[in-house]
Amino acid sequence: MVPTVEEYMALLRCPRVQVDKVYSRAANILTFANKLMKITGMSEQWVTTQIKQKGENKCILWKSLQDHILAYPDTKKRIDVFALSIYGLVIFPKALGHIDKAVTDLFDQLDRRVTPIPAILAETFKSLSACWKASEARFIGCAQLLLAWFHSHF
């Protein structure tokens, strides 16, 4: 028994946005720095100094974004950065206290009104499979969403 796309859509109250399109990585996508510049509205210099290498992935420290949310005058940009932070820290937590490059890819797709539900479901399956294979692995995904699904079924 596993969650379905429809169940996750209902739990997240996600409208059917372009149901014929799902999240996928495009071949010629913007660089991590360019996406961060687009989302945050900050300069290239600021963005490049904030990007860190965490393991195999490029990330940005949550603290940098938090400071940006509190200080930036443009309300839309503050909301975008806050939403990016939620996706990075709650939905797809890869590195503690950091927002992963993959999250900016997903966030960029959301701007185009492509539904994130299949990506969230795929991350859940991938992480549960890793936990099952290596009985000690840490679940990487939205534990709160999975818990809500469990409560709705048991």
Key features of this structure:
154 residues; mainly alpha; three-stranded antiparallel sheet; 8 helices; 8% strand; DUF7745 domain-containing protein
Tell me what the structure shows.
- Pfam families: DUF7745 (PF24924).
- The protein is 58% helix and 8% strand.
- With 154 residues, it is mainly alpha-helical.
- It has one domain.
- Helix 2 packs across helix 6 and helix 4 packs antiparallel against helix 5.
- The longest helix is centred in the middle third of the chain and has 17 residues.
- It is globular, with a radius of gyration of 16 Å.
- The mean pLDDT is 75.
Write the layout of secondary structure elements.
Elements: H1 5-11, H2 32-40, H3 44-50, E1 51-54, E2 57-61, H4 62-71, H5 75-91, E3 98-100, H6 101-111, H7 117-133, H8 143-153
Antiparallel strand pairs: 1-2, 2-3
Helix pairs in contact: 2-6, 4-5
Q: Element order, helices and strands?
A: HHHEEHHEHHH
Class inferred from helices and paired strands: mainly alpha
In terms of per-residue confidence, which ranges show pLDDT below 50 for 5 or more consecutive residues? none
Which term fits the overall shape? globular
Cα-atom radius of gyration: 16 Å
Count structural domains: 1
Q: Residue-averaged pLDDT, rounded?
A: 75
Distance between the termini: 11 Å
Main β sheet profile: 3 strands, antiparallel
Strand segment count? 3
Strand order of the largest sheet: 1-2-3
